[in-house]
From TrEMBL:
Keywords: Metal-binding, Zinc, Zinc-finger
Superkingdom per UniProt: Bacteria
GO MF entries: zinc ion binding
Keyword NAD: no
Every Zinc finger DksA/TraR C4-type domain range: 74-106
Organism of origin: Candidatus Berkelbacteria bacterium Licking1014_7
This protein's name: DnaK suppressor protein
UniProt-listed InterPro entries: Znf_DskA_TraR
PANTHER family (alphabetical): GENERAL STRESS PROTEIN 16O, RNA POLYMERASE-BINDING TRANSCRIPTION FACTOR DKSA-RELATED
Zinc-finger ranges (dksA C4-type): 79-103
Length: 120
């Protein structure tokens, strides 16, 4: 991968990392609306909603962190499955990608539940 593209993608990843960390800080603050029963119901509803969001943000943060570490090791942009270079256009769109399109498609074909985890 060209050095200029690598630098550009690293900046993009670092920016995403900062943004995700800020979101996590906001989400982790537990709302306190008061002591009334209605207030408690609202608190619980918001807390439950934030749990799903927090899980997704934490996953994205891990992916971004892994990509940044791969850049520092000089292994960024290499498919974890076939060990070939991931298309730079794919990395531009999804900088934390760890699989090339072919391997990702094959994995989705073999294990469709990984593609749509909410389907059970």
């Amino acid at each position: 991968m060209e050095k200029t593209n690598l630098i550009k993608l690293e900046k993009k990843l670092l920016g995403a990392q900062k943004a995700y960390e800020k979101i996590l800080i906001k989400i982790k603050k537990y709302p306190d609306y008061g002591i009334g029963e209605e207030d408690n119901v609202q608190e619980i509803e918001e807390f439950e909603e934030s749990l799903g969001l927090r899980k997704n943000i934490e996953k994205a943060l891990k992916e971004v962190g892994r990509a940044i570490r791969q850049i520092k090791k000089g292994k960024y942009g290499i498919c974890l499955s076939c060990k070939k270079e991931i298309n730079p256009k794919r990395l531009e769109i999804y900088p934390s990608a760890t699989l090339c399109v072919a391997c990702k498609s094959e994995r989705a074909r073999r294990k469709p539940w990984l593609r749509f985890p909410w389907r059970g």
